[in-house]
From TrEMBL:
SMART domains: TOP4c (SM00434)
Keywords: ATP-binding, Coiled coil, Cytoplasm, DNA-binding, Isomerase, Nucleotide-binding, Topoisomerase
Domain of life: Bacteria
InterPro entries assigned to the protein according to its UniProt record, in alphabetical order: GyrA, GyrA/parC_rep, Gyrase/topoIV_suA_C, Topo_IIA-like_dom_sf, Topo_IIA_A/C_ab, Topo_IIA_A_a_sf, Topo_IIA_dom_A, Type_II_DNA_Topoisomerases
Entry-linked SUPFAM superfamilies: GyrA/ParC C-terminal domain-like (SSF101904), Type II DNA topoisomerase (SSF56719)
Transmembrane residue ranges: none
Bias (Acidic residues): 849-860
Known catalytic reactions: ATP-dependent breakage, passage and rejoining of double-stranded DNA
Name of the protein this chain belongs to: DNA gyrase subunit A
The keyword Amino-acid biosynthesis is annotated on this UniProt entry: no
Main localization of the protein described in the UniProt heading: cytoplasm
A molecular-function term among this protein's GO annotations: ATP binding
Motif residue range(s): GyrA-box: 524-530
Length: 860
């Protein structure tokens, strides 16, 4: 006979079915708590095993191994370590808001220390846990077979405590997770009273009583939109912070003491994290760190340096350590054997509905017992009243069955009543016992009436629920530990960690940048020797030197027309003599791109303007507000043609005059009003009409009425001169300009121009990596159409590659940022100068047929 062919099964269908069954098993039977008692199966089985062992709060502790053995042997066929871990957590005061297990021994610590082995520790149920098991023997909940069908276990506990929210829960199932924070029992009881009085109340009504999570480790919780969303939708995120205090020590020293930490944070790892931040210099001002915690509470002491601002260190701890953390609330629980997302009201409603069912089932059980007992007492009362006849009837009977039948026939007793009379003791016939029977019977009648009213009248049932909630609150409610703050908590900005102190920003010609506290440049008397400044290499010098504050913006413009933005505090701090870090480590610069101008400002006002000058003679005026928002990769500050470069950027106002100087010794002066405001990416308009290979090397800004500043022009071969601004007559924008410097083969092309005064100094860098410093008053004032005097004697083939102004205090750096705050606050600017732009080594002056003089008309 041929074998019967087995039916084919689709592997896809079978896998889907099997995986769904597995997922449901994990969700219902392991990871997600029940909405009614707030317990997962393992916790419920631990409590039931202790209930069967009579391991009550008022009895001696039992070995944890005994409890774990009963749990895994009778109800929970899993590893003993998993059950013991769950038992340990139920006993930890830093894990459970209201522990359900009273432990004796080492149950671990908030530092992450492991508990002792189960053979060394002892447990018993806490007093609160007893309220989970009350009336369990009165048919209040359903029972189901255990894993091997030999015993029965409850499907849910008849808990009087809204444990889902009291102790919270967390777990990860298949495709879903739950994370419910603990709450204050007293507040939940108040909310339950409101819900019982008005089932139609809103979530907002309940939030009047439930202020927010109440973590066992205290701290702060910020009740903003995240908490509102969590209580209304079941999902939301709240910020949790630890508590820190400032303590005064001797001799003016201060300490920060951490008293409370966020829920679930390992204190030992927190201390290690703080120590690492101090070593990495991410948090400054800390001299010592020690953990002085004991059984009285947490105490982590952080000693500060003298003069350190504690609030800055505190903000740093919140920023860089888990002392501020986010708690993601996800109130997922099992309702009717299905996972469901609950809001605050539905979570409390599930508990109320459960308690209502428990009270109804308990009342029915008690009513049945009371009616059965009253039925017996009614028979005993009749028998006592006719005791002589009853005794005679019993004596006349041959056996108990005959006596029972005789009593049932004579007095119309039921079988139960007749049996109770036959089993009655003779002491019941005494007068005192008769009175007790009558009192018991009367009391039973009152209870029966009360039980029936509970089942028949919904208001009486509601009052019974209110009474239970009130009793739980009076017995077990404790003061709130976590302080709820209603103000919104925004992310800590790095500026909150740094004081807005005055600092000095330096940028060298080779691109090295640093930030130094202004106090390092202490004021000296006139005639002093000065102090050592930035250590640079032989071929480098300070290109930018500006005084600003930590919270201002740095706008860094490059030769390719792009702008990068940094906060001043983002520039790495260095000592007065430190070289600093290269600008490429701070900005994403491209090949052959360098910073030409650095401006520092606090705000980007719409009525303030930047002037852009390009190598090909284009100028543009744009509102500063267009540059307020800058991407990490920078933004286009001015549109440039392929053969053009950005020479300089200057803050400018309506009454300013602009002087453009070219390599071929031509200059033009025109009013700012000739340049209309334009968009951010605009190319601009013609500022000067260049001839052949000529190009702009400088842009000088001055006041309309300024007649005192002189313009210093320097050529590639080391010649220079200063000329009064009065000699640069005002022209229209776009003209050919007038002679500024007599360029010859001897002088070489002009490499730059800047405004100077007699008390200024001048520093020049040559191609031979030599730096020459002279005083401005050593250079004679000359006319425009002159070649000037020799400032530095160069070796054959050498040329000037850069120069800058030096003030009388010995600091280099162009004037722009010293005057910028005045310009941006409507104060007058006194002068301006060009950047120290180096001319190419092989640059030659343009061979003009005949330079224009003052009498020639421009081509505007």
């Amino acid at each position: 006979m041929a074998e019967m062919q087995q039916p084919q099964i689709s592997i896809e269908t079978e896998l889907r079915k099997s995986y769904l069954e597995y997922s449901l098993s994990v969700i219902i039977g392991r990871a997600i708590p029940d909405a009614r008692d707030g317990l997962k199966p393992v916790h419920r089985r631990i409590m039931f095993a202790q209930y069967e062992l009579a391991n009550n709060y008022n009895r001696p502790h039992k070995k944890s191994a005994r409890v774990v053995g009963d749990v895994i042997g009778k109800y929970h066929p899993h590893g003993d370590s998993a059950v013991y871990d769950a038992l340990v957590r139920m006993a930890q005061e830093f894990s459970m808001r209201d522990p359900l297990v009273d432990g004796q021994g080492n149950f671990g610590s908030i530092d992450g220390d492991a508990p002792a082995a189960m053979r060394y520790t002892e447990v018993r149920m806490s007093k609160l846990a007893q309220e989970f098991l009350g009336d369990l023997d009165k048919n209040t909940v359903d029972f189901r077979p255990n894993y091997d069908n030999t015993l029965q276990e409850p499907t849910v506990m008849p808990s009087k405590v809204p444990n889902l929210l009291v102790n919270g829960s967390s777990g990860i199932a298949v495709g879903m997770a739950t994370n419910i924070p603990p709450h204050n029992l007293g507040e939940l009881c108040d909310a339950l009273q409101v819900l019982l009085d008005n089932p139609q109340c809103s979530v907002d009504d309940l939030m009047e009583h439930v202020k927010g999570p109440d973590f066992p480790t205290s701290g702060f919780v910020y009740a903003g939109k995240g908490l509102y969303d969590a209580y209304h939708t079941g999902r939301g995120t709240v910020k949790v912070r630890g508590r820190m205090e400032i303590e005064e020590r001797k001799k003016g020293f201060q300490s920060i003491v951490i008293r409370e930490i966020p829920y679930g944070l390992n204190k030992s790892s927190l201390v290690e994290k703080i120590a690492a931040l101090v070593n990495d210099r991410k948090i400054d001002g800390i001299t010592d760190l020690r953990d002085e915690s004991d059984r009285k509470g947490i105490r982590v002491v952080i000693d500060l340096k003298r003069g350190t601002i504690p609030d800055i260190v505190i903000n740093g701890l919140y920023k860089f350590t888990p002392l501020e953390t986010s708690f993601g609330i996800n109130m997922l629980a099992v309702v009717d054997n299905r996972p469901q997302l609950l809001n605050l009201k539905t979570a409390l409603t599930c508990f109320v509905d459960h308690r209502r069912e428990v009270v109804i089932r308990r009342t029915r059980y008690d009513l049945e017992k009371a009616e059965a007992r009253a039925h017996i007492l009614e028979g005993l009362r009749v028998a006592i009243d006719n005791i002589d006849e009853v005794v005679a009837l019993i004596r006349a009977s041959a056996n108990p069955e005959e006596a029972r039948n005789a009593l049932m026939k004579r007095f119309e007793f039921t079988e139960i009543q007749a049996k109770a009379i036959l089993e009655m003791r003779l002491q019941r016939l005494t007068g005192l016992q008769r009175e007790e029977l009558m009192a018991e019977y009367k009391d039973l009648l009152q209870k029966i009436e009360f039980y029936r009213s509970i089942l028949e009248n919904s208001e009486v049932l509601r009052n019974e629920l209110r009474r239970e909630v009130s009793e739980i609150r009076e017995t077990f409610a404790t003061p709130r530990r976590t302080e709820v703050l209603r103000e919104a908590l925004t992310d800590i900005d790095i500026e909150d960690l740094i004081p807005d102190e005055e600092v000095v920003i330096t940028l060298s010609r080779r691109g090295y940048m640093k930030r130094t506290g202004l106090e390092n440049y202490q004021q000296q008397k006139r005639g002093g020797k000065g102090i050592a400044a930035l250590h640079t290499s032989d071929d480098d010098y300070v290109q930018e030197f500006l005084s600003t504050t930590n919270h201002q913006y740095l706008c860094l413009f490059t030769n390719k027309g792009r702008m990068h933005q940094l906060k001043v505090h983002q520039v790495p701090e260095g000592s007065r003599t430190a070289k600093g870090v290269h600008i490429n480590n701070l900005l994403p610069l491209e090949d052959n791109e360098w910073v030409t101008t650095v401006l520092a400002l606090r705000e980007f006002a719409e009525d303030k303007y930047f002037l852009f000058v390009t190598k090909r003679g284009m100028v543009k005026r744009s509102s500063a507000s267009l540059y307020a928002r800058c991407r990490k990769t920078g933004l286009m500050a001015v549109g440039l043609r392929e053969d053009d470069e950005l020479v300089v950027v200057r803050p400018i106002r309506e009454d300013s005059h602009i002087v453009l100087a070219t390599a071929d010794g031509i200059a033009i002066r025109f009013s700012c009003r000739d340049v209309r405001p334009m968009g951010r990416v605009a190319t601009g308009v013609k500022g000067i009409a260049l001839r052949r290979q000529d190009f702009v090397v400088a842009g000088v800004i001055m006041k309309e009425t300024d007649q005192t500043t002189e313009i210093m022009s320097i050529s590639a071969n080391g010649y220079g001169k200063r000329t009064s601004v009065e000699l640069y007559r005002l022209q229209s924008r776009g003209g050919k300009g007038i002679i500024n410097f007599k360029v010859t083969g001897k002088t070489g092309p002009v490499v730059g121009a800047m405004p100077v005064r007699d008390n200024d100094g001048l520093i020049l860098l040559t191609s031979a990596n030599k730096i020459v410093r002279i005083s401005v008053d050593e250079v004679r004032t000359k006319g425009r159409a002159t070649m000037g005097v020799m400032l530095v004697r160069l070796d054959e083939g050498g040329h000037v590659v850069g120069f800058d102004r030096v003030d009388e205090g010995g600091q280099t750096g162009r004037y722009v940022n010293e005057e910028l705050d005045e310009i941006m606050s409507d104060e007058a600017v006194e002068g301006g100068e060009a950047p120290a732009v180096a001319a190419p080594a092989d640059a030659q002056p343009a061979q003009n047929d005949e330079p224009e003089d003052d009498e020639q008309q421009n081509d505007a």
